[in-house]
Amino acid sequence: MSHYSHFVVRLTEDSGRNPVEEIESLVARSMEDAKSHALLGTSRPGQGFRADPCARHVVVFYSTPSGEIEGCVGEIVARWSKQKPPARIPALYQPSREQVQGWWTLKGIKRITPGKKLGDIPGRSATGHPAVSTFRNPKSQMTFAGWTFERDPATSLCEEAAP
C-alpha cells in the first residue's frame, strides 16, 4: 500500500448526501468555528494516510454538468476511524453515518474559484495519474484518492487565502 499525506475526494449523490449541501456545510462550519475547523466524512478510511507535519491538504469537489468542479480545499488536522469517530458528528452525516468509513477534521477551508476544471487540480494520485484521468468517469467508483501536490492546492484552485 502506498502512503500519502494529501488526498482528493469527489463527492457524489451515491453517498446519500447532496454534494452541494456537503460543500456548503463544510465551508459554513469552518467559518463559524473559532479554530476554523470542520468535519468531513469519507466513504474510504484513508488507510494509506500518513500525517506530514509540514503539509497535508485535501481537495473536496463535485463535478457539474458543464464539466467544471465546485468544492473546497482544506488542511487536514486529524483523522478519526469509523470504530472511534469524533464525539460530535454534524447533522448532515447522521442519515448516512454508517456509510462513512473515515472522519477528518479540516481547517482553513477555502472555496474553489468558479470555472475550475479537473485539469486544474495540481499533482497526481498515489498511482501517478492526474485528476483528469483519475476522476474522468462521473459514474466510476473512484471517490477518494491519495495525492501528491507539486504546489499548494489552495494557491492553484482558490481566489484568496482566507475562507
Please provide a written account of the structure.
The chain contains three helices and seven strands; from the N terminus they run βαβββββαβα. The chain has a seven-stranded mixed β-sheet with strand order 2-5-4-3-1-7-6. The chain has 163 residues and is an alpha+beta fold. The radius of gyration is 14 Å and the shape is globular. Helix content is 14%, strand content 29%. The chain has one domain (6-157). It has helices at 19-32, 131-134, 153-157, and strands spanning 6-10, 37-42, 57-63, 69-81, 102-111, 124-125, 144-148.
Shape: globular
Q: Calculate the mean pLDDT score and round it.
A: 87
Spatial gap, N to C terminus: 34 Å
| Unreliable residue stretches | none
The percent range for strand residues is: 25-35%
Structural class: alpha+beta
Q: Major sheet: order of its strands?
A: 2-5-4-3-1-7-6
Major β-sheet, in short? 7 strands, mixed
Could you tell me the number of beta strands? Answer: 7
Tally of discrete structural domains: 1
Rg, Cα atoms, Å: 14 Å
Total of helices:
3
Q: Helical content, roughly?
A: 10-25%
Order of helices and strands: EHEEEEEHEH
Could you give a quick summary of the protein structure above?
The protein is built from 3 helices and 7 strands; from the N terminus they run E-H-E-E-E-E-E-H-E-H. By secondary structure, the chain is α+β, with helices and mostly antiparallel strands. It has one domain.
